[in-house]
Design goal:
The structure is a single chain. The N and C termini lie far apart (40 Å). The longest helix is centred in the middle third of the chain and has 30 residues. The chain has 2 helices and no strands. Helices cover 91% and strands 0% of the residues. The chain is rod-shaped, with a radius of gyration of 15 Å. It is mostly helical.
């Protein structure tokens, strides 16, 4: 629900929207890497 409202709000400023989408993607990649590192540590 939050994302829906944010999406409508951000459509008014697509440049900012792209910036936020980019940083969200970067955060997701960072989280995935952190999860992978954690899994490796758990295996060892």
């Amino acid at each position: 629900m939050k994302y829906c409202i944010m999406g409508i709000f951000l459509q008014k400023n697509s440049k900012q929207m792209k910036k936020i989408q980019y940083s969200q993607k970067k955060n997701i990649l960072n989280y995935q890497m952190m999860d992978n590192n954690k899994a490796e540590l758990d295996n060892n």
